[in-house]
Amino acid sequence: MKNGYSTNQSGILYIVATPIGNLEDITQRALNTFESVDLIAAEDTRHSGLLLSHYGIKKPFFALHDHNEQQKVNVLIDKLQKGLSIALISDAGTPLISDPGFHLVRQCREVGIKVVPLPGPCAAITALCSAGIASDRFCFEGFLPAKTKGRCDKLTSLLEESRTMIFYESTHRILDSLADIQKIFGAERYIVMARELTKTWETIYGSTVEKLIDWINEDLNRIRGEIVLVIEGTSILSDRGDISPQATNLLERLSKELPLKKAAIIVAESFGYKKNELYQYGLTHFKE
Ligand code: SAM
């Protein structure tokens, strides 16, 4: 019996991407899969109910969110092993990408249940492909930590990251995060803020971090909605001469607290540059 309990064959777990705003961004294959499966595992069953009713699809739901995923995985594995097929979706975009599903997929693969991915929207990739920042090598960092200390530690660990970096952000934290990004990566780092992608107020704005903060402060509506940050990696920064970005960042930070000469001496000792070279760099880049 197809997808019924009486077969000895396991069902299939489909990982189905759904739109990140524009409902036209659903694939025909996703719709066919929703029609064919026995069950849809979703983060927020009410939210996903609205999505599926938009496409005229009615299916039983199973709630799987971050807080209950580990407990619920066994229930879903049991259903799959009895031959039911399940589509996993999240509130928006690709499941598992800053969304639940990892434990379920891992467990399925461990016990030999077939996992079939259906590609589609993902905010990180949608932002990257429109940012005009190197897209040949990039890393996805999800959400930065909520507290300043954790955020600065995380950013410091990325100081030498030469790949393009992609972060998810929320309206409430974006200005604090940008302030920390400026503090750690320096005011000149190039960054693109992609907001409300695929929706009415879609905005993709690129500039230095410092200018981005000014631009936002001119109109706080510019950070309403959902946001992705795409940040240029360190080795492709321009105008840094032969001095490494790590050294110039430290010099910039120290020069805010100390006379430039002292800052230059400390950085010269740490990185092995000539103090005069650093002093000249500071004069041209940080001092009016
Ligand atoms: N799984 C989703 C994906 O594939 O992109 C991401 C889920 S994560 C919980 C939600 C975050 O993704 C938002 O806080 C925002 O940073 C980003 N995001 C989702 N939709 C977006 C959109 N339309 N425009 C910009 N960012 C978006």
Question: What would your notes on this structure say?
Answer:
The structure is a single chain. The protein has 288 residues and is of the alpha/beta class. Helices cover 41% and strands 17% of the residues. The chain has eleven helices and ten strands. The strands form two sheets. A five-stranded parallel β-sheet has the order 3-2-4-1-5, sandwiched between helices. It has a five-stranded mixed β-sheet with strand order 6-7-10-8-9. Helix 3 (69-81) packs parallel to helix 4, helix 9 (245-257) runs antiparallel to helix 10 (260-271) and helix 10 crosses helix 11 (275-285). The radius of gyration is 24 Å and the shape is elongated. The model is unreliable at 1-7 and 236-240 (pLDDT under 50). The site of S-adenosylmethionine (SAM) has 24 residues, from helix 5, strand 7, strand 8 and strand 10. Residues 20-21, 90, 92-94, 97-99, 122-124, 168-170, 194-199, 226-228 line the site of S-adenosylmethionine.
A few lines on this structure:
The protein has 288 residues and is α/β, with parallel strands linked by helices. It contains eleven helices and ten strands.
Which strand order does the major sheet show? 3-2-4-1-5
Mean pLDDT over the full residue set: 91
Distance between the termini: 77 Å
Number of strands: 10
Shape: elongated
How do the helices and strands follow one another from N- to C-terminus?
Answer: EHEHEHEHEHEHEHEEHEHHH
Q: Count of helical segments?
A: 11
Which parts are unreliable, with pLDDT below 50 for 5 consecutive residues or more? 1-7, 236-240
Q: Which ligands appear in the coordinates?
A: S-adenosylmethionine
